[in-house]
Each structure stands twice: as C-alpha cells, then as structure tokens.
Amino acid sequence: MLIALTCILTILTYQSFVKLQAKLNKVWLNPMLLTILFLILGLYNFQIDYEFYDNNTEPLNFLLELSVVTLGFPLYQQLHAMKKQWKVIVLLLILASLLAIISSFALTWIIISQQEIAISLSLKSITTPIAIAITEQLNGNIAVTAFTIIIAGLFGAIWGIKWLTLLGVNSANAQGLAIGTASHALGTATISQISYQHAAYSSLALILSASVTAIIGPVLIPIMINLIGG
Amino acid sequence: MTKIIKHQWINIAYAIVSLLICLGLGYGISAITGGLPPSLYGMAILTLSLQLKWISAERISVFTTWAIRHMGVCFVPAGVGIIEHKQLIQQHGLAIVAITFVTTFLVLTFVGLIYQKHEEKSQTKPTNNDTSRHS
C-alpha cells in the first residue's frame, strides 16, 4: 500500500512537471530535475529518511531496468544506417572515454588533490553499476561516484541539446552519440523523446562507452595514480 | 473497433513479456560473465532478437515508444539519492559540480563536433550515397 502510494506520488509529481514544461516550453524546467528537487524538499520538510523513500520506490527501479531494455528497439531501427559508420563510432567512443577519464582525473587532482575523489570523478560519465564496481576495485569514493553520475546525467539531459545546437551540431546522430557518451542512461532517456535517431545513437554510445571504460578504466586510472605519485 | 482495442492489448502484453525475457536473459549473462549490468545486456539481446526476427518489431513498437517517452520518471528515486550525500556536498560540492560540468561539456563537444564533421564529410563523398540515411 505504502509502495503504491509513494510510486503514484512520484509519478504524479513528475507528470505535473511534464505538463508544466509543455505549457511554458522552457528547457530548464526539466521534469526530472524539478521532481527530484520537489521530493528532496518534501523529504526534508516531513523529515522522512531517504532509505524509506528508496525502499518504497523499488518498483520504479525495476521499471528503470526494463526501460533501458526498451532502448534496444530504436537501436535496432537504426542498425542498418549505423553499420557503415561502425568503425568510426567505436574509435570515436574509445577516444571520448579516454578524454572523459583523463580530463576528470587531472582536473580533480589539480583542484581538490584527493586521489579517491579523482578516481570517482573519472568514472562519472558511465552507467552507475559499472562505475561503482570500478570505483570499489580502485578504492575510490562510492558516494562521490554515485553523486557525480547523477549530476553529469542531469547536465546532459537539461543542457546537452541546447549546448550542441549552440555549437552548430544539429545532426541527430551526433547529438545522440555525444549525450549517450557524456550523460549515460539519464541523458539518453531525456533525448530519446526527441527522435528515434537520438534514442538509437545515444543508446549505442551508452553501451559502448560503458564497455570501453570497463576495459580501459582499471588499467588507465592506476597509471595516472602512479604518475601523481599516489 | 473492440477488435482493434483487444489486438492492442495483446500487443502490449507481447511487448512486456518480450522485454521481461530479454531482461531475464540479461541477468543470466551478467551473473555468468559479469561485465555490463543486466539491463545493458538486455538491451543488446532485444536488438539482436529484433534483427533475427525472434521478436516482432511491429508488435512491440507502440509500447516501446510509449515506454521510452515516459522512462525519465524511473530515474527520480536515484536522483533523490543526492540527499544522502549532504556532508560531501558541503565539503567539496561546488568544486565537484564545477569539474563535472566542465568535463561533461568537454566530452559532449568532442563527440558532437567530430561525429558531425565525419557525417558531413561522408555525405559529400559521391560513393557514400546511402538512401537509408533519409528514412
């Protein structure tokens, strides 16, 4: 009963913000972000533990997994067009994953100078389960990893398309690849509403960048730790 | 009319069962081989099953389109989890958010610009005229 109530409340809040955004037509009125902020304020106000909320929204977590599977559909629809670009896409995503890891690690080391935070931030562009596993393996900080994954996802989801359009990147395929690489499933979920091409290319980037990072992360990050003398 | 509605419900059930099977298989593969999380294996299995015509794309199209349009709500509980990291946010919050901001946009820019350049280049090549591009 409590589970149903918490889930329905979450869905209703989200739907209200979807309606609000449709009415006012503003990108920054992102329903996901507003629902998160609204519920955080609600939990604070009524002094409810996050654990209580999390336990009672378990069905939504299951639906999240199922909805990631549905992204296989747009991926299938674009597979034919993608086949010809296969090599370029893989090469580009390997380079992009290297860039994501190295730039985040270096910048964090320069600004915060804490090894465990640098490890966590270098994994923030990929999907949570893989990032957490690698963070544990390399003795990073799991809380930082989890936190920054959400922030990176929200940035791409809210401003990704706007930023790319500003740069003159109007191709749906390029926008999809970029957001899937930088902002994982959260960014993918948001832009998948725009077109099948966005959904397909973002889903492909999501899978590939997660796979590439899972392979190179555990090798590259220890090398960088050695370089900084850790 | 009622026949069409009944047909739609059958297709929705078909789509849900297909997705559940893909996710279930994803769990199986993830348990055996590790590596990617179950849902990403499930996504790859769905793509493969559609390609091999084990699952009918036509029958799952309406449901998956609807599900993709609404999947954002499923990320809300994880997002609310930020509340758990209050201490961390107080300590390094601003720096962490700033670094995440800069590096996320760096990756977006890198991938977006290069792939668009590549597309423009391959479109101007006369040998690469692909009709599927316009579908």
Account of the 3D structure:
The complex is a heterodimer of chains A (230) and B (135). Chain A has 2 domains: 2-70, no CATH class; 72-227, no CATH class. Helices cover 83% and strands 0% of the residues of chain A. Chain A has 11 helices and no strands. Chain A has helices at residues 2-24, 31-45, 50-56, 58-70, 72-83, 86-111, 115-121, 128-137, 142-166, 172-191, 196-227. In chain A, helix 6 runs antiparallel to helix 7. The radius of gyration of chain A is 18 Å and the shape is globular. Chain B has 135 residues and is mainly α. Chain B folds into 2 domains: 1-72; 82-126. In chain B, 77% of the residues lie in helices and 0% in strands. In chain B, helix 1 (2-33) packs across helix 2 (38-51) and helix 1 (2-33) packs across helix 3 (57-70). Residues 127-135 of chain B have low confidence and may be disordered. The chains are: A mainly alpha (230), B mainly alpha (135). The interface between A and B is large, with 104 and 75 residues.
